[in-house]
Write a structure and sequence with these properties.
By secondary structure, the protein is mostly helical. It has one domain. The protein has eleven helices and no strands. Helix 3 runs antiparallel to helix 9 (about 190-210), helix 7 (about 155-165) runs antiparallel to helix 8 and helix 8 packs antiparallel against helix 9. The longest helix is centred in the middle third of the chain and has 31 residues, at about 90-120. It starts with a helix and ends with a helix.
C-alpha cells in the first residue's frame, strides 16, 4: 500500500509539474499549493526529481521547436563560416538568446538560495501569483510589431532580466518573459518562440549543475512514471498554450492567477 501511495504521489507531481511548466501560472507555485492542500511533497534535497522534471519539459520544448532550432543552428553556422548575409537573422537570434540567458544565470548562481529562503511560504506565493495575473492582464490585448528580424540586444536583455525575476517562487517564467517580450512590442508568435527558446539554455544549465546529485536508489519506477507524465503533459500544455497565444486569450490566465492568489490569501 505504501509503495502504491509513493507511485501515485510522484505521478501526480510529475503531471502537475509537466502541465503547469509551459503555461504562465507558475509551476513552483502550484507545487507549493499541492503541498498545502494535499500534503503531497518531495523532500527539499530531492535533486533527482527536480532534474528529471526539468529534462522532461526540456524534451517537450525541443520536440515542438525542433524545426526552428535546426534552422537557427544551420543558418547561424552558415553565417559564421560562409558569411551568408541572408542567414544573419538566425545568427543574431543565437546571440540574443545567449545574451538573454546571462541575467538569470548570474543572478541565479549568486542569489538563488537567498531568494528562495526570503520568499519561502504560502503568502509570498500568493502575492507573486497576483503580480503575474496583473502583468498578464496589462498586456492581454497587445499584438506587437517586432518579428524575429526586428529584435535588438536591448530587447534580449529586457526579456533576460524578466526571466531572472521568475527566480522568485510563484512568478511564472513563461509569464514573465512573454509579458516583457510583448511589453516591448514583440508579436505574440515571436514573444512565445523567444520565451521557449530561452528556456532551453536555462533548463540545460540546471541539469548540468545538478546532474551529479542524481541518485535514483529505490525510486527508479516512481521517477520514470513522473518523467513520462511530465514529458507528455508538457508537450500537450505547450501546444495548447500556443493556440491560446495565437487567439490572444491571455486574459484567462490572468483570471486564473487572480483566483488562485486570492484563494491562498484568504483560505490558507
Amino acid at each position: 500500500m505504501e509503495e502504491l501511495m509513493i507511485l501515485l504521489k510522484y505521478a501526480f507531481l510529475g503531471a502537475l509539474q509537466g502541465f503547469t511548466e509551459p503555461i504562465p501560472i507558475s509551476s513552483s507555485g502550484h507545487l507549493v499549493l499541492a503541498q498545502e492542500l494535499l500534503g503531497i511533497t518531495v523532500p527539499d534535497n530531492d535533486f533527482s526529481f527536480e532534474v528529471l522534471m526539468n529534462f522532461a519539459s526540456l524534451l517537450a520544448v525541443l520536440l515542438i521547436y525542433r524545426k526552428d532550432l535546426m534552422r537557427i543552428a544551420v543558418n547561424g553556422g552558415s553565417f559564421v563560416t560562409k558569411r551568408e548575409k541572408e542567414n544573419k537573422d538566425d545568427f543574431m537570434m543565437i546571440v540574443y538568446l545567449v545574451l538573454a540567458t546571462i541575467p538569470a544565470g548570474v543572478i541565479g548562481l549568486l542569489f538563488e538560495d537567498a531568494i528562495s529562503s526570503h520568499f519561502r511560504g504560502i503568502t509570498p506565493i500568493a502575492v507573486a501569483l497576483l503580480v503575474t495575473g496583473l502583468a498578464l492582464w496589462l498586456i492581454r490585448n497587445l499584438k506587437g510589431r517586432k518579428g524575429d528580424r526586428n529584435l535588438t540586444w536591448k530587447d534580449a536583455l529586457i526579456v533576460g532580466f524578466a526571466q531572472a525575476v521568475a527566480l522568485i517562487p510563484g512568478i511564472s517564467r513563461s509569464g514573465a518573459t512573454i509579458v516583457a517580450a510583448m511589453g516591448i512590442g514583440m508579436k505574440r508568435e515571436t514573444a512565445l518562440r523567444f520565451s521557449f527558446l530561452l528556456y532551453i539554455p536555462v533548463s540545460l544549465g540546471t541539469i548540468v549543475l545538478k546532474i551529479t546529485d542524481i541518485d535514483f536508489g529505490e525510486m527508479l519506477i516512481p521517477y520514470i512514471i513522473a518523467f513520462l507524465l511530465s514529458l507528455g503533459l508538457s508537450y500537450f500544455s505547450l501546444k495548447w498554450f500556443m493556440g491560446i497565444m495565437e487567439r490572444g486569450n491571455l486574459k484567462y490566465f490572468a483570471y486564473y492567477c487572480f483566483a488562485i492568489g486570492l484563494f491562498i490569501l484568504f483560505f490558507l
